[in-house]
């Protein structure tokens, strides 16, 4: 059986046709532009390929209640062109297949648990630090959802004493996404993320914010593994800085062998599926249904 998978991100959409065994047969990446430009390209990619179901892991907020009239509709996303855009309905209508929807980060957590760096545990968290910051959780066979889905990128963090940047989040300004996502880094320092690689101050501040967020997630959710992906995490020097700061903030309060200097590099890790966690997770969504 052929299935369709979409990883809808703020910068790019990854589209794939795969099998019900989880193999990807064909893949294409297109930029995220206005929905009137991007969505017709998505439809053209899948047309005539014989897919029987479509899994979509998308940036949020998005209506994920299957019984709602607005299932698959984007909500108050900072990507303003997409606010209230009925993505799910447009795709089902055009392709005439059922669609299964979850957040990009929930499906990434799920695919890391199935195929990646969290196959040996029952609970994990996947965080992306890219155009935005978001985290998804996979706990005992299910992704974490409730009223809506978790919005872990929009929590408050303590400001770095030397940071005067106002923050990019259109809803909260200086939430963790507003202070530490890719666009905030670029605006604060006036250079592209990859051009900042050598500047220690940049990464010390970045780790200061991300470690606070991780510490909060550890206190609230107690995941057995934390996986960090997204464009900004390509700066590998961030990992040791974040690990060190998390231990410092926890200050020994949570007892776990993982939360020690010796073991923390097995606890806060990069994705096992490198750039494929999202798209494989979207395929897994379609497989599961
Ligand atoms: P998306 O969020 O659309 O899924 P990405 O995870 O690739 O996409 O994130 C894109 C963001 O990551 C951009 O804001 C960019 O500045 C930042 N980024 C991409 N590559 C790097 C890099 N090598 N170093 C630092 N930042 C990067
Ligand atoms: Zn925010």
What does this protein look like?
The protein has 289 residues and is an alpha/beta fold. It folds into two domains: 2-106 and 276-288, ATPase, nucleotide binding domain (Nucleotidyltransferase, domain 5), CATH 3.30.420.40; 119-270, 2-Layer Sandwich (Nucleotidyltransferase, domain 5), CATH 3.30.420.40. The chain is 32% helix and 19% strand. It is built from eight helices and ten strands. It has helices spanning 35-46, 87-95, 104-115, 176-180, 182-189, 200-221, 238-250, 277-288; strands at residues 2-8, 12-19, 24-31, 54-58, 99-103, 123-129, 133-139, 142-143, 226-229, 268-269. The protein has a five-stranded mixed sheet with strand order 3-2-1-4-5, sandwiched between helices. A five-stranded mixed sheet has the order 8-7-6-9-10. Strand 4, helix 2 and strand 5 form a beta-alpha-beta unit. Helix 1 (35-46) packs parallel to helix 2, helix 3 crosses helix 8 and helix 6 crosses helix 7. The longest helix has 22 residues, at 200-221. The radius of gyration is 19 Å and the shape is globular. The mean pLDDT is 94. The chain binds adenosine-5'-diphosphate (ADP) and zinc ion. Residues 9-12, 128, 130-131, 182-183, 186, 193-194, 230-232, 234-235 line the site of adenosine-5'-diphosphate. Residues 9-12, 128, 130-131, 182-183, 186, 193-194, 230-232, 234-235 line the site of adenosine-5'-diphosphate (ADP).
């Amino acid at each position: 059986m052929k299935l369709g998978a979409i990883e809808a991100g703020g910068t790019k959409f990854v589209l794939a046709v795969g099998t019900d065994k989880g193999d990807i047969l064909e893949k294409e990446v297109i930029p995220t532009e206005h929905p009137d430009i991007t969505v017709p390209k998505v439809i053209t990619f899948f047309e005539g390929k014989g897919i029987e179901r479509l899994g979509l892991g998308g940036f949020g907020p998005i209506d994920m209640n299957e019984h709602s009239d607005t299932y698959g509709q984007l909500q108050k996303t900072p990507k303003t062109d997409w606010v209230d855009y009925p993505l799910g309905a447009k795709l089902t209508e055009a392709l005439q297949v059922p669609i299964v929807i979850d957040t990009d980060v929930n499906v990434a957590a799920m695919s890391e648990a199935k195929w990646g760096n969290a196959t040996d545990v029952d609970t994990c968290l996947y965080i992306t630090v890219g155009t935005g910051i978001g985290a998804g959780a996979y706990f005992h066979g299910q992704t974490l959802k409730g009223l809506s889905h978790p919005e872990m990128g929009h929590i408050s963090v303590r400001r770095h004493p030397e940071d005067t940047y106002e923050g990019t989040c259109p809803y909260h300004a200086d939430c963790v996404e507003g202070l530490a996502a890719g666009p905030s880094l670029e605006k604060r320092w006036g250079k592209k993320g990859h051009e900042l690689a050598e500047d220690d101050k940049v990464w010390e501040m970045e780790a200061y914010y991300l470690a606070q967020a991780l510490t909060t997630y550890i206190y609230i959710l107690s995941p057995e593994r934390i996986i960090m992906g997204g464009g900004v995490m390509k700066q590998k020097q961030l990992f040791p800085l974040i690990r060190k700061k998390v231990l410092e903030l926890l200050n020994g309060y949570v007892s776990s062998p993982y939360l020690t200097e010796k073991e923390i590099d097995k606890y806060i890790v990069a994705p096992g599926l490198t750039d494929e966690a999202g798209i494989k997770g979207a395929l897994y969504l379609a497989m599961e249904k």
